[in-house]
Amino acid sequence: MFPKTPLANSNISPTTTNKKTTASPTNATLGFIDQLLNKIPLPRWAIYIIFAVIVLLILVCIIWVCVKCCCKSKKERKNKPDHQINLQGVTGSTTTSLVQPGSDDADYGSAKNRGRLLYSLEYKAQELTVGIKQAAALPAMDLGGTSDPYIKVYITPKKSKTLETKVYRKTLNPVFNEHFKFEIDKAELNESTIVMKVFDFDRFSKHDIIGELRLQLGTIDWNHVIEEWKDLSEPSKSEDIILGEICFSLRYVPTTSKLTVVILEAKNLKSMDVGGSSDPYVKVQLALDKKKWKRKKTSVKKCTQNPYFNESFTFVVSFEQIQKVQLVISVWDHDKFTRNDAIGKIFLGCDAAGNQLRHWADMLSNPRKPVAQWHNLFSSEQVDSTLDLKHSVRIPFINKNF
Ligand SMILES: *[C@@H]1O[C@H](CO)[C@@H](O)[C@H](O)[C@H]1NC(C)=O
Ligand SMILES: *[C@@H]1O[C@H](CO)[C@@H](O)[C@H](O)[C@H]1NC(C)=O
To answer: PROSITE patterns annotated for this entry (predicted)?
Structure first.
């Protein structure tokens, strides 16, 4: 019945293969792969293992890339909290009194950690020796998570010379142990400020400033060698710029415990607005035991660099308190649209220096008489770092007295 089986076979087989290809292409590709595998001179299991290894390798690569990406963004996110933790550690370990419940959060939010500096100061035979010992917990300025720190040291306002340390590579905790000498006489020392600026070295671009320390030398007791850690602060922007002068009178009446400050006038105030003029006003603050205590301010004088105020403020300050109190006088530019800017600042008190100490001492030695004097303004960063004021104290009972 089937004499032509081979022909029939050959006839059937092409149709079946045809059917296969049209009906299910996967089967065809499988068949093709099968043929291909047959051509490879390796046992089937060996080929499967090689295939499995290749797939595994690709998977591992993909996972590695994913993990790498995740870690990087995590690290970036983690960077800031890290510094804040450092800051908390720093303040916690140096002065526990600094940690006050309630007001800490706001402070940590606004203050960027710039690290700390251990320095020493010694004044002997008309020579000031500044020791730059070491820095710690500096922020990372480079992409690699490190910095290349070095420090510049100079004295203002007479910036006779600027000295600098070596650059320390890839570290956030450099140990410098370098000493710098400045020839300076006692009178000039009383009016000077030492500036230590920490920079991040960069061969190819402008060196970033990490932070700075400013210390008014007139306030220092030179009977001892000073060696201490201090937090670096934000670099002052108003370096070597004339900020202006202010004239006010002071009067203290011990019997009534009344301190009267009359803000008379200011002149040559630095303009803070783009237009070139300012709307100045003056804040008069008292600080006690490194805390803000009382505060008053003058009216705003429109569009002038030489305002005349003649405004009087009276504070109740006991005779005991007058020897510890600091009077902080600051000139501000009133700005309707943005935050008000401080033009300049000074402070007076028994721990003030130079001209300011003289004025305060004159007031104390001439009770009941108003004593007026002109003062040069300093940058508020400089005064703030000298004062190192903490949070304000509220003594409602005393405030009600007047
Ligand atoms: C410097 O100031 C101190 C007080 O801060 C004072 O005792 C001293 O006489 C002043 N020296 C000079 C030379 O002005
Ligand atoms: C300053 O104010 C006082 C009173 O507060 C006044 O007696 C005096 O005349 C004023 N001086 C000037 C120059 O306006």
So the answer is: C2
128 and 253 co-located in one domain: no
Contact 191, 218 (CB under 8 A): yes
Q: Is residue 367 part of a domain?
A: yes
96/221 same-domain check: no
In CATH, what number is assigned to the domain containing residue 267? 2.60.40.150
Mutational pocket test of ligand 2: of 263, 310, 313, the residue with most ligand atoms within 8 Å of the beta carbon: 310
pTM of the shown model: 0.46
Q: How far is the CA of 323 from the centre of ligand 2 (A)?
A: 29
Q: How many domains are contained in the chain?
A: 3
Do both 318 and 330 map to the same domain? yes
End-of-domain residue from the set 65, 96, 113: 113
Q: What is the pLDDT along the chain (402 residues), one digit of tens a residue?
A: 444 444 444 444 444 444 444 445 556 666 766 777 777 777 778 888 888 888 888 888 788 776 665 444 433 333 333 333 333 323 333 333 333 332 323 233 335 788 999 999 999 989 999 999 999 999 988 878 888 899 989 888 776 677 888 889 889 999 999 999 999 988 889 888 999 999 888 766 667 789 999 998 988 889 999 999 999 988 876 555 678 889 999 999 999 999 999 999 998 888 776 666 788 999 999 999 888 899 999 999 998 889 999 999 999 999 999 999 999 999 999 887 777 778 899 999 998 876 788 899 999 999 999 999 888 888 887 788 778 765 444 444 443 333
| Centre of ligand 1 from the C-alpha of residue 386, in Å | 18
Query: Does residue 372 lie within any of the structural domains?
Result: yes
* Ligand whose nearest atom lies closest to the CA of 357: 1
Domain, as residue range, for 76 = 18-113
| CB distance 280 to 382 below 8 Å | no
Domain-embedded: residue 8: no
Helix residue spans in 246-401 (DSSP H): 319-322, 354-365, 380-387, 396-399
CA dist 23 and 91 (Å) reads: 78
